[in-house]
Amino acid sequence: ALYHAGLRRFKSGARRGKRLSRRAEYAWSGGLDTCKGCKDLGDACARGGRGSFGDFCPLQKDAPETLEGELAWQVASQPGMWTLAMAVTQLGTQQVPLGLNWQAALAFGEAVPDLDFDIYRAALKGVELGRISGEAQSAKNKTTQEQIH
Known about the structure:
Strand content: 15-25%
Oligomer: single chain
Strand order of the largest sheet: 1-2
Largest sheet: 2 strands, antiparallel
Distance between the termini: 53 Å
Helix content: 40-55%
Order of helices and strands: EEHHHEEHH
Radius of gyration: 17 Å
Mean pLDDT: 81
Number of helices: 5
């Protein structure tokens, strides 16, 4: 594997974006709040170790390993990179993601030398699918909690 900026470059035929999809699903389903709690409590997972729950933090475990994956994560985390719509749910009106702003996301990649655009697109797609899934899971959990109370 070639190394660039400390990240691995994979040229295998493996399906791209699986790690980022899991990471995004975790992050946008409430995982970022969980991580904040771990940091506040000083749990080992917040420092890259095994947490009190016995495993590594999903954000660490599924961190990007390639230049393309790291860029996809950074770009998708920027404000304004998502197309949002208003949705009426049992909890009221809220914004939901429809998908990435692909034109803007791809423009970021054009400025990076040696970027493999096929891998970058796949990484972006992984983040996109993970976020949409995570947000849906979060909404379902909130609805269930509201029904319990």
